Amino acid sequence: MILTLLSKKEKGFTLVEILIVIAIVSILAAIVIIAINPARQIAQANNAQRRVDVNTTLNAVSQYAVDNNGTLPSAILATPGEICRTGAAICTGLIDLAVITTAETYLISVPLDPQATTTNGTGYRIRKTANDRIVVTAPIAQLGVSISASR
Question: Does any domain span residue 25?
Answer without folding.
Answer: no
